[in-house]
């Protein structure tokens, strides 16, 4: 590492926590938000790393997120647990509910967590990894902003709706995927626009519904789902399960409510957790050992598992620290010193 | 309808039930199996219609399915219900467990059904539609035979692993999707082989892992998942949740166990059901009305919802009956008259 600005993961975590505390976020929430942001940076998942701090500060400065919200757990004793984020960030809410979700899943075999009324900016892998650490499989999904047209349609209606899954692997990194159900991320189209380069075919349509490779026309039109009508069906399922079913905003409502995409979306999220030991019990087989047979066979073909690169980056960061550029470090300094004024508040 | 051979849905159901009873299948099971086969034919879903009878008779003739299996429910009082199909067809097992699954889902908000040790040949939409009639949302998935390579791999390992979802729509057909996680069905490649036409690019690779449009090379190599690495991740999830987690066969084990693909696969299946009323209760919103907002907006764009064609075919069949060809009718006659001897037993 010849890079001059190397911080340990813990040192970066401390700095980001301090930034959020100075921005007025209550200590527990600052820790949870900083935790996922630093996890993204640590895993070389730059799009969900410290780059996200500015967006969080902006939504704080705009008064569109509640910095002192205390997540409220609601437990009716069923297999559905709820946590009201109270207009705060989603991460402290998940953090507050995590132990109860794991406990209920072990007791009932399957359980769901509803996160209500939260600002959402983070990758979902953080949540499914946390449950994999508990030995649980899980699915996680949420709406976003409606940038995406349904298959056969012409207008923005669906979100980029991420879908994540985690499966525990004894003594190793869990099997984790987490992807947008759009072909590409909106930020990727934005990068092409800035660079003046065309986007690949199949990413988007223009406002008349015609295929386009022009980033401006794409941003003005609609993005497309991955996998054609199948991806569109999954994205629709996410709107229904993590929006309509919870009585929380779907992607179009989230956009209408915020009045634009300058700030983070406000909506709910759904996590479904399953205990493999309960499901397998009567079979007499070890579900995690069976899982290893499959996952090992994938690797033996030379195929990469989802998240493999992320886990490799994590190991490197834990060992060597996280390298930041001069500009990134200067920004952290400014955020720490100026608080919300750094984003024009 | 100028077709001479038109049967009412009920008349066809009666004929198919009789075929299975004469083949030695216990009455209750014959009704359940005939029900899903005739539903496929009625919905103009020919690949899951009466065409499937021959495959079912073959597996009966081979003694690889238990014709007199009585599904056994196992209920530990948790949110996971199990039904042992006892080596019989999956449909009677689902039928036996359906009411308890719906009841438990209403009580607990979310519940899962494990179907163990079954022969599986039917589309999953039948099950998720049955749950939508109960006002429940549901997910259904199962392994199959390992014809599909994981993204970045070169060898058959994953099944064509179907994934289905149902969502109730008040006063209308439910929102239902049900698709293979492979790009195409194996039968479609077989049809190209017989016709001597190339398959589209992106469907399959040859045994060396190179892209191919030659149907023979494709059948000898491996099929590909829909949506690249994202579809591959979902297919892997299905192996883990509906295979490893249940302690039932994954797709490769199912193939090894049957020793070839001439007969239907034997494995388990997983259904997850959710009660929208429970999930939405604290929001004060009507989850099904919210769902209508989304689904109506998709239609208003001119986009078709999954299963729309199937529901239209169903309405036509219920009104006008089901038209069968001379050959199809002759085959029904033969199956009814000769029983298992019709398939060489």
Mean pLDDT over the full residue set of chain A = 95
Biggest chain pair contact, residues each? Answer: A-B, 75 and 75 residues
Strand order of the largest sheet of chain A: 2-3-4-13-5-8-9
The CATH superfamily of the largest domain in chain A is known as Malate/L-lactate/L-sulpholactate dehydrogenase, NADPH binding domain
Helix content of chain A: 40-55%
- Our measurement of the CA-to-CA distance between the termini of chain A, rounded to an integer number of angstroms, reads 37 Å
Identify the overall geometry of chain A. globular
Instruction: Indicate the CATH class of the largest domain in chain A.
Output: Alpha Beta
Strand content of chain A: 15-25%
Derived structural class of chain A: alpha+beta
List SSEs of chain A in N-to-C order: EHHHEEHEHEEEEEHEEHEHHEHHHEH
What's the helix count of chain A? Answer: 13
Compute the number of strand runs of chain A.
14
CATH topology of the largest domain in chain A: Ribosomal Protein S8, Chain: A, domain 1
Any idea how many domains of chain A? 2
CATH architecture of the largest domain in chain A: 2-Layer Sandwich
Radius of gyration of chain A: 20 Å
Give a short account of the largest sheet of chain A: 7 strands, mixed
- The oligomeric status of these chains comes to homodimer
Low-pLDDT stretches of chain A: none
GO molecular function (chains A, B): oxidoreductase activity
Protein name (chains A, B): LDH2 family malate/lactate/ureidoglycolate dehydrogenase
Organism (chains A, B): Breoghania corrubedonensis
Family (chains A, B): Belongs to the LDH2/MDH2 oxidoreductase family.
């Amino acid at each position: 590492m010849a890079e001059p600005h190397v911080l340990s993961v813990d040192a970066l975590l401390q700095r980001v926590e301090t930034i959020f505390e100075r921005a007025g976020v209550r200590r527990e929430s600052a820790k949870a938000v900083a935790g996922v942001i630093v996890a993204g940076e640590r895993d070389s998942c730059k799009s969900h790393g410290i780059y996200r701090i500015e967006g969080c500060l902006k939504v704080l400065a705009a008064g569109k997120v509640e910095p002192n919200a205390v997540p409220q757990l609601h437990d009716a004793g069923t297999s559905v647990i709820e946590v009201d984020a109270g207009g705060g960030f989603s991460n402290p809410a998940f953090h507050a509910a995590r132990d109860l979700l794991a406990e209920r899943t072990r007791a009932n075999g399957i359980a769901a967590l509803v996160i209500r009324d939260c600002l959402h900016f983070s990758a979902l892998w953080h949540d499914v990894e946390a449950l994999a650490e508990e030995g649980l499989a899980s699915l996680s999904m949420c709406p976003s902003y409606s940038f995406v047209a349904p298959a056969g349609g012409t207008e923005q209606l669906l979100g980029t709706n991420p879908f994540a899954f985690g499966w525990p692997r004894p003594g190793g990194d869990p099997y984790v995927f987490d992807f947008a159900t759009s072909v590409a991320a909106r930020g990727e189209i934005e990068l092409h626009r800035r660079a003046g380069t065309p986007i690949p075919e199949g990413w988007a349509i223009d406002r008349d519904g015609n295929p386009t490779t022009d980033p401006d026309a794409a941003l003005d039109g609609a993005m497309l789902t991955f996998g054609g009508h199948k991806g569109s069906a999954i994205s629709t399922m996410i709107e229904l399960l993590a929006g309509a079913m919870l009585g929380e905003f779907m992607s179009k409502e989230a956009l209408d409510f915020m009045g634009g995409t300058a700030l983070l979306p406000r909506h709910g999220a759904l996590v479904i957790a399953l205990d493999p030991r309960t499901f397998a019990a009567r079979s007499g087989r070890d579900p995690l050992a069976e899982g290893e047979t499959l996952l090992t066979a994938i690797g033996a073909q030379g195929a990469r598992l989802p998240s493999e690169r992320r886990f490799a980056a994590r190991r490197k960061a834990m060992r060597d620290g996280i390298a930041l550029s001069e500009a990134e470090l200067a920004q952290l300094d400014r955020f720490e010193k100026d608080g919300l004024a750094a984003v024009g508040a």
